[in-house]
Every structure is written in structure tokens, then in C-alpha cells.
Amino acid sequence: MPPESAQSVRFSPGSVRFSLAANYDSELVSELAAYPVDEVYGKFPADGISGGRPRYLATPLSESDLRRYILQLDRHGLAFNYLLNGACFGNREWTRAWQKRVTVLLGKLGDLGVRRLTVSTPFLLELIKRRFPEFTVKVGIYAQVDTPRRARFWEELGADAITLESFSINRNFRRLAEIRQSVRCDLQLIANHACLPNCPMQPYHQNGFAHASDDDGTLFIDYCFLRCSRSRLADPSQFIKAA
User: Fold this and answer.
1) What is the total count of domains within the chain?
2) Is residue 1 a part of any domain in this protein?
3) What's the Cα-to-Cα distance from 122 to each of 153, 158, 221, 222, rounded to whole Å?
4) To pair with 109 at 20 to 30 A between CA atoms, which of 22, 51, 133, 164?
5) What number of helices (H) and strands (E) belong to the chain?
6) 233 lies in some domain
């Protein structure tokens, strides 16, 4: 059957589900269950594996805290998605030590009740699918999936869901429809971006986050956030142009 044209694609409101950042507030979980929330996402402040957010922005969290939180989510029909979504691992992923560390972490996460993961690098997706096929794996926004060809690449690697590169294509409805028709896996959009449209600092920013979330303890100053905040204040139309 030939793909539908972009004009004919329709999205049913009943199929929309939300993925929200976890703040680990136990009182909020029962309230989330009243809305079409599918999952919440988060990670330990430091786990030896880079993520998509600097350590200093992470909520302090112990293993027992996460276990209790996941049990509470389960009781309300919500899932927890653990983030391993760093855009860069500093080439440590090719070492035995890093691969052993991530294997131990994945086993621990499974024991804590985690069943979903988000990644942004092909090698990590392949590693998880080979060694821990029980996990459902989503591709994060830092993978920059913005074409049907890129979406098919990740699906063929084993991705169960893909977060599209919302910085540039959230308003490109034809492109979104083409991607939807090209793959069978779930697709996700980030709907509350305040970033500059097609931000030229995006690769630099996401790599800065990756290294600010590892265990090196290197100083990180969020130059990109400060720079784009200044741009928005100087030109308030950038708020309206955001994805």
C-alpha cells in the first residue's frame, strides 16, 4: 500500500499520551493518573553514564527512593523511563570498564523495576537490545531524528519509540507526516520547547550537557542557555517562534 499523502494524515486525540519529567513527588503521582500520562522520566544525579542534563540540575535520589517511586507509579498504571541519553560518552564506551559499568547499571535498573530507557547513541541502543532485550528503548531528541531515513535507521536498530528533533520540525507538518508513514514505532514530540528555532548552538549545548552529567567533575557554565536567553530578551518575537 503506498504511503498516505501528508494532507490525508489524521492524528486521533485519543492516541495522544504524555511523557513528563519526574520530580519524585509522591503526592503528585495519583493526580497524574487522572490525565493521559503514559510515563515519567528521570535518572540518578550521577550513575557513571552521561545524560542530557547537568548533575547540578538533578534531583537527589537514592536506589531505595527510586524503587519506592516506581512501585507507586506502577500502582497508578504509569511507567518510569530511565535516561541514558547523553549525546557523547567521551569515547569511554569503547573501553571494557565503561561497558562493564553500563551493564551493571542496566542490571540494577531492571531490579529496581525500570522497564523503559531513553538513549541517543546507536551503540548503546544495540548494546541494550543485545544484552537486555526486556527493556523498551526510546530514542531521545539528541539523536536529531528529523527525516524518514533517520527514523528508519533507528527503527531497524531496534528502537521501540523515537523522539523527533523538535527544535526544527515541530511545525513542519508535511515532514512529520512523512516520518509517521515511514516507521511503525511510536513517535514523540517535545511540545514545550523554548529554544531558538533551528538553534545553531544545539550540538554544542547537548555535548556540554553530556560532559556536565558524567563523573569527571569538570566545571560547566551553561553558555548556550545564557546566550539564547539574551537573544530572546533582545528580541521577544523569539518566544513566539519557539518550537
Assistant:
1) 1
2) no
3) 9, 10, 28, 26
4) 164
5) 10, 7
6) yes
pTM: 0.88
Whether 26 is in a domain gets the answer yes
Task: Take residue 129 and report the three cell numbers written for it.
Answer: 537490545
Going across the sheet that includes 186-188, the strands are: 18-21, 37-42, 79-84, 116-119, 136-139, 161-163, 186-188
Q: What's the grid cell of residue 144?
A: 536529531
Which one has a higher pLDDT value, 126 or 191? 126
Does residue 186 lie in a domain region? yes
Question: Residue 100: is its pLDDT beyond 50?
Answer: yes
Q: 125-143 burial string, b = 16+ CB within 10 Å, else e? A: bebbeeeeeebbbbbbbbb
Contact by Cβ (8 Å): 9, 29: no
- The 10 Å Cβ neighbour count of residue 60 is 8
Q: Which residue(s) pair with 138 in the sheet?
A: 118, 161
Q: Looking at the predicted structure, is the pLDDT value of residue 47 above 50?
A: yes
Domain residues for 209? 6-241
Cβ atoms of residues 79 and 186 within 8 Å = no
Other beta carbons within 10 angstroms of residue 6's beta carbon come to 15
CATH number for the domain that contains residue 51 = 3.20.20
What integer is the mean pLDDT of 156-171? 93
Q: Which amino acid is at 131?
A: R
The residue whose grid cell reads 528580541 is: 235
